Amino acid sequence: MRDTASVLHLDLDAFFAAVEQRDKPSLRGKPVVVGGTGGRGVVATASYEARRFGVRSAMSTREARSRCPHAAFLSGRFPAYRAASELVMAELRAVSPLVEPLSLDEAFVDLAAAGLPDLTLPTVTEVAQRLRARVAEVTGGLTASVGLASSKFVAKVASELDKPDGLTVVPPGTEQELLRPMPARVIPGVGPQTTERLRRAGVHTVADLEALSLDELVRLLGKAHGHGLHAFARAQDDRPVVAEREAKSVSVEGTYDTDLTDRRLMEGLLTRQAGEVATRLRAHGLSGRTVTIKVRLHDFTTLSRSSTLPSPTDAAGVVARTARTLLADLDTSGGVRLLGVGVSGLADWVQEDLFADDAALGDEAADEVAPVDLEAAFPRRRTWPPGADVVHEEHGRGWVWGSGRGVVTVRFETAASPSGPVRSFAEDDPALQRWTSTEPDPGEVTTQPLSSPT
DNA sequence: TCTGGGGTCCTAGGACCC
DNA sequence: TCTGGGGTCCTAGGACCC
């Protein structure tokens, strides 16, 4: 642990929902829920207005709808979130070369690598405030909460303390007095199961945890976890901020609104997922030796089966055939709610001579798959998901307010032109198109750098 | 019709090798 | 008849994170 508050943790507030409110003025000040909108969807992000009704991340969308029926339920526009995230990460890197993104909306910054004149509290505080202002400026008004402390652990705890749009600085030396009264749950790696185990052992707070010996903790939680908690309970955390981390696996999975029972359909879906995995492997110049399938049964029991190949592959056909073979050994007669395919044991090289063969094999193997109409049974993506950007020949840019029964309702409103009407169209109206371009609208006057995500 | 998707890390047992 | 140990790889499952 360092003796300066030079680890910064930044967390964008209600990120996905905030991007939607930024781009769709009618949603400002209103409850917005972004996440899965299907029958088995869960909430990814709820705006603060929706949180007032008890809507939370990871809650089923069904429950969120019953708690807050008048919220806008949107299925998410990842290109827009990624664009906003990249602008924020660029601002962080302008402060210090040592930036560790944890997700689209969160990152650590090591101010000790920033080349500042000093790392005193006034200096780092000013850097943090300037950074928050820059984030708002460059994203068109998104707010961030920031924590500054002597370690990742405490910086992250600190960023939670004044949300949204706040800054908390923990002076070095005061970490333990901050942590002691907090629930043990604030410690990274302490989730529901560990919390329950600790509760049964009479441990509720960080102070309670601190009273346990290393031996007791290891007995209670195992070696790695025990050692980790022993240190965290004392605010000891030497984990460095790491800029580049290599991917260890690539996977695709899907939960279906109704349980699958048709094996040929499952094989078709696995094959399609294998293709997506292979595409992503190739896009990153990776290949891997271990193919894993994941199967969640109707009763939520989750199975995995894996097979390690003699050499790494990035070929769709090889991944697909391996996946289908693994599925063959499982009893899925009760119905399957989730299927997934992943590749791990990644290497950043491909065996050149095998590459051509594998690629050819890939095409063949894709064709081997049972003749089910996958697109009819499970369309790859719905054309008009709620919240999606669209453009109409006559009315211009807008977004999907609702869809179903052959009709799509569009609100013609963007951050740049916030006063458009709401109109309905036939779903197959050729004048209406998904807006997928990452370029700004032709002719659109953009005053906010992010109003047309790139 | 409770319970997403993309990840990481850890544990534990068995095979196999020296 | 009894008696090893360590190391690595692989597999399956589970907890956790955002």
UniProtKB/TrEMBL annotation:
EC number assigned by the record: 2.7.7.7
Swiss-Prot/TrEMBL keywords: Cytoplasm, DNA damage, DNA repair, DNA replication, DNA-binding, DNA-directed DNA polymerase, Magnesium, Metal-binding, Mutator protein, Nucleotidyltransferase, Transferase
Single GO MF annotation: DNA-directed DNA polymerase activity
GO annotation (BP), single: error-prone translesion synthesis
Catalytic reaction equation(s): DNA(n) + a 2'-deoxyribonucleoside 5'-triphosphate = DNA(n+1) + diphosphate
Annotated positions binding Mg(2+): 11, 105
SUPFAM superfamilies: DNA/RNA polymerases, Lesion bypass DNA polymerase (Y-family), little finger domain
GO CC, one annotated term: cytosol
Active site as annotated: 106
Enzyme class: transferase
Cofactor: Mg(2+)
Region (Disordered): 415-454
Protein purpose: Poorly processive, error-prone DNA polymerase involved in untargeted mutagenesis. Copies undamaged DNA at stalled replication forks, which arise in vivo from mismatched or misaligned primer ends. These misaligned primers can be extended by PolIV. Exhibits no 3'-5' exonuclease (proofreading) activity. May be involved in translesional synthesis, in conjunction with the beta clamp from PolIII.
Subunit architecture: Monomer.
PANTHER family listed in its UniProt record: DNA POLYMERASE KAPPA, DNA REPAIR POLYMERASE UMUC / TRANSFERASE FAMILY MEMBER
Name assigned to this protein: DNA polymerase IV
The organism of origin for this protein: Nocardioides perillae
